[in-house]
Amino acid sequence: MARNQGMTGFVQTEPAPAKINLALHVVGQRPDGYHLLDMLVTFTRFGDRVGIAPAEADRFTLSGRFAPQLQDGPASGNLALKARDLLRVALLRQGTAAPPVHLHLEKNLPVASGIGGGSADAAATLRVLLRHWRAALPAAELADLALQLGADVPMCLLARPLVAAGIGERLTVLEDLPSFPIVLVNPLVGVSTPDIFRRLSTKENPPLAASAAIGAAAWLSAMRSMRNDLEEPARVICPVIDAVRTELDRSGAQLVRMSGSGATCFGLYGTTEAARRAAQALETARPDWFVVATESYDGGDPHGAA
Ligand SMILES: C[C@@](CO)(OP(=O)(O)O)[C@H](O)COP(=O)(O)OP(=O)(O)OC[C@H]1O[C@@H](n2ccc(N)nc2=O)[C@H](O)[C@@H]1O
Ligand SMILES: Nc1ncnc2c1ncn2[C@@H]1O[C@H](COP(=O)(O)OP(=O)(O)O)[C@@H](O)[C@H]1O
Question: How far is the CA of 226 from the centre of ligand 1 (A)?
């Protein structure tokens, strides 16, 4: 697997936005061990990017700040390539051609950080390859294929504000969730998702009450009564999360919470300028952390907005 300068020369590129769990309630456990979750989810303009070009044989290259972390393991373990291979098998089964491609991943999102980078890459790969190969799968088959790649992949395929239930396969798109100026902060300590789930002390918590709020103030107030049930076990494994939260609280955020299984925490702000200033102050105070100011999507077409 080679390092590559960037996206120049790729015939099609696709954004792989970060997934933000604005709330995550653990409400049960399936017999196979997977946890039942109620999640309020949005996506950000900031994310990874997948590019493709036709090729004589399949090829995979990486660039971006976090590419080195994915270069150590075998490329075949990369979720973008798993997505390519699974999609190709499904298309060949129905008689659709899926010729070789050069796939490039610009890795801007920290790895194992609770914002679904690998899932976003897999989903973006599915979207861009379906376009490139001018192919389609029945909706139910595509949803199944996405879920095989990971519990977060179906929601990343939609990449728009939604409520997710089950393990992430039951999705309800939210048309009225506003866009929020948001700052993401990760202390650059990777957190293993199964480890966090294993440490949960209780698995049957109150469900998400997703009432139909209208406007940013009403949504903020509704979100304040929601939780991320994975925060408690994550703070035990990764105590620096407390420091991340404290810094975000001090930066003037209207709501601070951890996303997914951590360790990324986010702050929501009243204006883009407030988010930008907060990110600048955080970066100065903690140059060893990953800090980015961005915006979450509203209920409109995410691919138009990205
Ligand atoms: C916690 C969440 C919330 O959005 O996000 P991240 O922290 O990964 O971003 C997701 O549910 C993560 O989804 P994803 O990262 O795709 O998980 P998978 O690869 O399917 O599962 C990895 C492992 O996590 C545990 N797992 C995952 C999802 C779930 N609902 N219950 C679980 O117990 C299982 O041990 C599983 O083997
Ligand atoms: N394209 C990818 N980007 C990030 N991680 C990947 C990718 N492909 C495989 N992985 C593996 O998936 C695991 C989860 O990574 P990631 O999706 O970044 O986690 P999270 O959902 O917690 O943000 C990592 O341990 C990593 O080795």
Answer: 20
Task: Give the ipTM.
Answer: 0.98
Identify the active-site residue in 19, 82, 107, 298. 19
CA of 31 to the centre of ligand 2 (A): 25
Q: What is the DSSP letter of 8?
A: T
The pLDDT tens digits for 48-69 are 999 999 999 999 999 999 999 9
Which of 89, 90, 103, 1 lies closest to 51 in space, CA to CA? 103
Q: How far apart are CA 165 and CA 36, in angstroms?
A: 7
Which residue segments constitute the domains of the chain, with CATH numbers given?
Answer: 2-173 (3.30.230.10), 181-305 (3.30.70.890)
Tell me the pLDDT tens digit for each residue of 101-135.
999 999 999 999 999 999 999 999 999 999 999 99
Question: Annotated catalytic residue: which of 48, 152, 229, 298?
Answer: 152
β-strand 181-186 against 265-268: which pairing, if any? antiparallel
Which three-class secondary structure state does DSSP give residue 120? helix
Catalytic site residue 203? no
82 is catalytic: no
Any idea which ligand is nearest the CA of 75?
A: 2
Cα of 201 vs centre of ligand 1, distance in Å, is 17
Q: Do 25 and 206 form a contact (C-beta atoms < 8 A)?
A: yes
192 in a labelled binding site:
no
Ligand 2 pocket check for 48: Cβ under 6 Å = no
SS3 at position 134: coil
Report, in angstroms and rounded to the nearest whole number, the Rg of the chain calculated over CA atoms.
19
